[in-house]
Amino acid sequence: MVKPTVIAHRGFCSKYPENTILSYRKAIEAGAQALEGDIRLSKDNQLVMMHDLTLQRTTTGTGAVGEQDYFGGIDQLTTKDQAQPIARMNDVLDLLLEPTTPDDMWMIIDIKYDNPLAILDAVHDLLKEEKYAVHTEVLQQRVVLGIWHPDFLTKVRELFGDAYKVCFIGASLSGARRHFINKVDYISLAFAALNDDDGRAFIGEAHSHGQKVLSWTINYVEQMHACVLWGVDGIIGNDVKEMLEQVKAETLDSSALKHTRQRLYYFCIKKVMSVASYAYVGI
To answer: Where does the GP-PDE domain start and stop, copy by copy (predicted)?
Structure first.
């Protein structure tokens, strides 16, 4: 049985501030096989490693990322927890190119649907900068562009062609089937979307097209075990060490997910996510 790739969600964020270089570095040190992190576009066109549209949840600042300059503004802030600098995508690329970073390390850059499409131009421009252009072949193996909406896929193909791998990220199984099957390299779906017969059939369908299926956010042991049993290719979660331990477990137990209450819970979550995906993302 092939074990899924362990992907560190916003780095090793169960122990270190999310989307910081410390969190990514600690994830690599702990044995993560891949990383995942989010980007936002600042007023001065810098790619800030940030999940939220606003600064206040995770940093000492307030207000929208897109309404503030990085230089002279966001770069003066720190995370609330452990006082780490607010990173840019530049810092992530530097980390991926460090000699001590494993050669097979890669990272999903999560580009949320509520970003402006212009964020992809900024990603393209950054990767074309001389500092990174000389490492294009390496970065093409280490950077995966994560998108939530078909318009972003169209824009990615216009800018990059097939040079970089692309990952659809979403919560709607029907949206994934309608817009992304056989069109991207990875399909990353919320765990609830896969936790029924149709979800598991979708894994086989994606595999038949040569696509890899990932699942998020995998923070419970029974979820980790289920993903192994279903043949999911990668799990994205907060606790790197726990994921590594559980995917290697000799005995896999996902029986808790079969209880009526759990089945009903995930059924409801799947329906809510599907409706929310249509309402907010448009697919």
So the answer is: 4-248
